[in-house]
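re: that chain from earlier
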Amino acid sequence: MWNSLRARLWLIIALAVVPLLALSYLDHQRQRQQAVAAIAAEVHAVRAAVLARERDVQTELRRVLTMMSRADEVSDAAPAACNGLAARLMLAYPTFNNLGAVRPDGTVFCSGRPAPPGTTLPVRVNDRAWFQATLQAYDMTAGELVVGRISGRRGLVYGYPVRDDQGTQQMALFAALQKEWFDDLVRASSLPPGWQAHVVDGEGHVLSSMPGTDAAALRQLFMQLRRADPARSVAEFHELAAPDGPPTLAGLIPLRLAMQPLYVVAHSNPERGLSVVERTFLWRLVGLVLLATTLVVFTRHQVYVLIERWIHRLRKALDAIVQGRFEPPFARPSPVRELGAVETAINQMADALRRHRDDLHHLTHHDPLTGLPNRVLLRDRLEHAIQSCVRHQRYAALLLVDIDRFKHINDTFGHDAGDAVLRQAAQRLRQAVREQDTVARLGDDAFAVVLEDLPATAPQAASTAERLAHKVQTAMLQPYAWDDQQPPYYATASIGLTLFDGDSVHADAVLRQAEVALFRVKEEGRNGIRFFSDELQAIVRTRVHTEQGLREALQRRQFVAFLQSQCDADGRVLGAEVLLRWQHDDGTYSPPGTFIDVAEETGLIVPMGEWVLRDTCERLRRWSHDPRLQALSLSVNVSPRQFRERDFVERVLTILDETGAPPDRLTLEITESVVLGDLHGTAQRLAPLRARGVHISLDDFGTGYASLAYLTALPLDELKIDQTFVREASTRERDRTVVRAIVELARTLGLRTVAEGVETDDQRRWLRELGCERLQGYALGRPTPASEWESMVPLV
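^ sequence. v structure.
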């Protein structure tokens, strides 16, 4: 008989009624205890919020009155200055209705608010309780609730005695809180949800209340609280019966601000009382009785209805999951164990699918290392910012932030250190910008910041964006630490910035503009901030075009070596300097000034320099077998970036070995920028080359940070006098003195000199008289393709 579902349901009905009643009663007791605890916590929060606000205003009163007591302007002899000080303080602290000072006889001589027309002067306050209390006090008195004789408005007036070193009172300061302060007390108190507060005096007259408050009803509530039975209270708050509604939980909080009794009446909405728990229990009992009756009457029918409905719900739940809606379909599992188990399993499956979907969505739109939005989500945020600009007619900005030389951190300290730096940088960016701004990571060491809700005018928006950009840069300049064993690491940041107002722009265009500005910052030496402009985009476009062209030129071997003669004072050719030219498809040549900077920036100068060095060595090897050319030498410029390559010295020696060029016919020209910061290391790197027979020349001597230490510490063979000195020597005595001193210094140190930029016969004769060994310039020969120069040597 008990194998049928119908019989089991009848048994369940019979066994469930009594336990349900017991459980309901126990649950009622638990809920009542919870309600009592919750009400007590809320009452404590209400009391703490009101008392905290009371302490804040007392602190502010004491601070302002102390400030006035120490001010030089507060003097009986200078009431105008005192009035001005009080007026300024009232502007700074709008809570005050008036500030001023009173003589010991009760005459007001200083007031931040002028007396209205018709006021009897002088104003006297010797009958005021606050003033009388001040005469006996040594600190701020309690406030007196009065109508001001100057302002004509009701408020709390506080006194503050000013005494000399002997304790004699010189004056009394006063501060009047306007009646609206009570409204501020109510608004500023952080009350829990559902609570209201009002300020009343000792007679129940309302001083401040929330909008829509019935003053008569509030006064009646106040009187009820004065007569309330403590036995029916929770933390000194009482549940009071209302004649036309449910009970209200309310209480009185006395204020210590005034001499007269003042109270805060706090009360919650009716649903906060304990009676709600009682009514809930009664309704639950009624529900249980109705449920039992219904089950008894409709058991047979409900068996089939239960099964059919459950199957229908199951089908809907599975259809929702198939359609991608992964919210748990069964908010409350079926009371039938077997059915409930199935529903719970389906809920768990739906929840797991939702979590996997959310995780996938998060990984798709966020950077796993820093947790910041990635480029995909940044594009959405940018589009939203553009639409917001259109709607609100305001500007926004995009910052691209790049950690300078981040690769050095990974190469030197490892990728764990690099990841730690990236996480710290992300945290600093979030802290440096506003809450409504978006911080994203674009990849590697690149971050982006979307600044929304900037001012409506371009100058103001640019100023705000620049200020925030400087704040971001300052944050990024702070030291990074990832290991207690390592000293902090300092890194700089480059920031590209662009403004946009939503007018015919899209996210890709904004990103490109910021990238252009960032590119310019890096090109100018990093560690800077740069705004995007059309002119800047044109410059960067040209630079990008040049970089692409240089890469193609390296692959297609479009570089050509030009030679410019170096002669003695009589015009006899002693050698030449190798100058690089870029030959285009149309046969024209680009001078180094148009592409060397780009090559340095991109690192292409390294393979270009190696090509020049190898081509020069192969040329010297060929010249070594030609009696007409074998005595000539060639000079090659070495860029700072090429020189700093770790294997530079080894590469030079390898090229000499592979080409068979005579080392003593090769001169490497370095600039003073190569030496800066590492004189000893530079000398060590040059020593093997000098030992091999390669000559070392210090180029552009005198134009940089020239130092005699360079000349004595480095294995040099010659000094090249910069052409600016040579060019101006014919007209300026100072430049002639510099050239003369360089030649004499080189002669003393046993170094030869090469003068660049010799363009006239007068310069040539003057340099010969000085004893300059080598001359170079248009007066002796222009840069010429190497093949043509070789054929012209006998004619020079």
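The CA atoms of residues 203 and 219 lie 8 Å apart.
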